[in-house]
Structures are given as structure tokens and as C-alpha cells.
Amino acid sequence: LGHGGLVDGCDVVCPFHGWKFDGEGCNTEIPYSDRTNKKAKIRTYPALERNGFIYAWYHPNAAAPTWEVEAVADIDGGEFYGPKRWTQVVQSGIQEMGENAVDSAHFRYVHNVADVPEIIRYEQDGHRSYMESNQKFPTPRGVVNGEINSTADGPGVSIVRFAGIIDTLLVTASTPIDAAQTQTRFNFYVRSLGDEATNSSVGEAFANEVIKQFTEDMPIWEHKAHLVRPALADTDGPFMKYRKWYAQFYVEEPSAETPVSVERTVFPPPYWPDKMDEVPGKATASVKHGGSAL
Q1: I need a labelling partner for 51 at 20 to 30 A (CA). Which of 84, 153, 156, 245 fits?
Q2: Cα 196 to chain center, whole Å?
Q3: How distant, in Å, are the alpha carbons of 86, 251, 255 from that of 58?
Q4: Cα separation of 267 and 224, whole Å?
């Protein structure tokens, strides 16, 4: 679309001069001319409308798609209420955020949950990965044992199912803006409880809790370094297995500045002069467990 561009019917409109282009990338209208420009073409991307999103396939070498995002049958089956939509831009790389999925220990210290969730299954199959975990959910009536089952469908799509209190569904789509920025979109669903008011109330509470945890993660994502070979505890999640799986989604070509024989092991955190007072420790539960915000 270009920054500030828009969609008009089946065309995209350039915000600079109002030229229109169709789904094949061809110029269909120049508003101040009676002719079109046959040489003016824009790059097009294979697209798919599914699960409440429009997915676009991007490959730096314009290679054709090798898979499609699976359809989530629960969305159209009539048993779930939604979606409630939410979006956020984060100053972090898409993989850095994705690693949260296998980082069970951080729930105790960033989100202040009672116990560290237990990962009971983590498997990979081509472009998809599957994880099942047990987690205790605090409620006004006490702690409830719950389950979280998630499917990563490629590098930017996740389908997460929560069970225990009430069946809920979260479909996420993350798009890298560039190497250091990611836009994440959430679509929330809850199993229908029969009436609109109850569905809306339960759905709102579910979404608010997930959004709360997401915003608690943001100061970490936006300030942390990336270690290629991190120090891990024997009970940490399957970080290296996840990274090996995720590596298939990169197309890298060595350059003169970074020859293939050179391996970077530490990627320092970004420097945000305008965020110097946003110390990550102030926004996390680690302070509650004896730590201090420097």
C-alpha cells in the first residue's frame, strides 16, 4: 500500500498522486488523466483471507508459497463468540517475541503467576510446531488447573487454546515491520455461554488478561540483548530447539561486511534515548520477588 495508502474496492491507491493498481499490480486509473500507464506496475504478493485475517506471503527472492495457514474450524462453527480485536507495535524483532512461547519460567517473574507452567509436549513438523502445557489459573474461588495448547503455523501465526476455566481461543498474527519492529494482532474468542452480555463480559476479561501479560513483556522485549548461545537452566524451556525450527524461515546471503565464517554471538539491546526512564524492572514482577529496579 505504501505509507498512507488505502484500498478502494479491489484496487490499492497511492497516497501521493492517487494512482490506482489492481490485484495483478497493474495501473487501472490515474485520476488526472484519461489514460493509464501500462509500464507502471507494483509488486504483488500471494494473499489468503482466513481466520479473520488477510495473510500475505513474502519471500525476498519472490519464491512461491510452500504452505498455507490452516483454517481454524472453531471460528466458523458457531460455538465460539468473537472476535475481539487488538493490535500493538513493539520495538523488537519477531523471533525475539516468538521465543516467549517456550519460555515457561518467565511467567513466574514477569507475570507473577503462582507456579511456573509445565511444558508437557513440544513437537515440530515442517513449518508448524506444537506445544502443550499445564498452568494453574488463580480465580476468586481458588486456583484452577488449566491447559494451554498452541500451534505455531509458520513464523508469524499462532493458534492458542486455553482450557480450565472456560474454553477460549486466541489467534495471533505478527508482521515484521523491519528487523527491529513488529506489529502483533490478536483476535480473541470464547466458547459461547448462551447470551450476548455474558459472552461479551467473559470475552473482555479473557482479552484484558492476555493484553496485560503482553504489555508486561514489552519492556523486556524492547531492552533485552539476544544471545546466540544463552546460559540456560536444565529446567528451562526448549529454546534451542525452537531457534533451530525458526531458522528455516530466514533467507540469508553473506555479505562482504559479514562473511559466512564470522558468527555473531551477542546482539546488543537497542538504545532508546527517549525511554531511559522505562527501566524493565519497574514493570515486572521480579521486583516483588526480592529484586530491585536500578
Answers
A1: 245
A2: 28
A3: 23, 11, 22
A4: 9
**Digit-coded pLDDT (tens) for 149-164:** 999 999 999 999 999 8
Question: So what's the pLDDT on residue 145?
Answer: 84
SS (HEC) of the chain: CCCCCEEECCEEECCCCCCEECCCCEEEECCCCCCCCCCCECCCCCEEEECCEEEECCCCCCCCCCCCCCCCHHHHCCCEEEEEEEEEEECCCHHHHHHHHHCCCHHHHHCCCCCCCEEEEEEEECCEEEEEEEEEEEECCEEEEEEEEEEEECCCEEEEEEECCCCEEEEEEEEEEECCEEEEEEEEEEECCCCHHHHHHHHHHHHHHHHHHHHHHHHHHCCCCEECCCCCCCCCCCHHHHHHHHHHHCCCCCCCCCCCCCCCCEECCCCCHHHCCCCHHHHCHHHHHCCCCC
Count of CB atoms situated within 10 Å of the CB of 83: 20
Residue type, 4: G
136 neighbors 113 (Cβ within 8 angstroms): yes
What average pLDDT is seen over the chain? Answer: 86
pLDDT the model gives residue 164: 82
Averaged pLDDT, 83-106: 93
The answer to whether the CB of 104 falls within 8 A of the CB of 237 is yes
Can you give the pTM of this predicted structure? 0.83
What is the per-residue pLDDT across 69-81, written as a single tens digit (0 to 9) for each?
A: 999 999 988 899 9
Are 69 and 80 within 8 A, CB to CB?
no
Please give the grid coordinates belonging to residue 223. Answer: 531492552
